[in-house]
Amino acid sequence: MNIIDKAIQTATIAHANQTRKSSDLPYITHVYGVGILLAQHGCSPEEIAAGILHDTVEDTDLTLEDIKKDFGEQVAAIVEGCSEPGKSLSWEKRKEHTLEFLKHASDEIRHVACADKLHNIRSMREDYSNLGESLWTRFKRGKEQQAWYYSGLVISLSVGAPFPMLDELKVEVERLFG
C-alpha cells in the first residue's frame, strides 16, 4: 500500500465520529481537503500523507511515535511541526507559538501548514456566506482574533521561499477579513 493510501486509512479510523466545528460535516473531509490541496500543488507523497495526518496527534489517540513507526521520520517531523503545543496553554500562547515557529520551519512544514489554513479559511468563508457574523461564535476567539491569527500566518509563512499556495492563502485572508 502506498503512503498516501495508508495515511487515508489511518486518518479515517483515527478521526471516526469526529465532526467539523459546530457542524454535522465529518471531520475527515478537512484532512482529505488538505491532502488534495497538497497534491494539486505538486507536493511530495510524504507531504501529502503528513497533511492527511496533520491533526491526528492533536485530536486523536495516535502519537508521534505511532506516526514515526508507520510512516517514517519525515512524515512524523512534518506532523509534529504542524501540531500545536499542549492544550494547557491559552489560545493566544498556542497561536503565538505557531506564528513564531512557522517563520523558521522547513518548506515541507510550511506547505502542510499553509494547506491546512487555506482549507480552514475557505471553509470559514463559505460558512460566513451562509451564517454572516454569527459564524464567529463557533470559535474560542471571535473575528478580530481570527483576523489577527490568519494575517499573522501569512506574514510568518512569507519569511521563507515563496510558494503559490501562500498566494492563495493571502487572497483568502483578504477576502474574509478585508
From TrEMBL:
InterPro entries: HD/PDEase_dom, MESH1. It comes from Ferviditalea candida. This is HD domain-containing protein. It comes from the Bacteria. Residues 23-130 form the HD/PDEase domain. It holds the Pfam family HD_4. Keywords: Membrane, Transmembrane, Transmembrane helix. SMART domains: HDc. The chain crosses the membrane at residues 147-166.
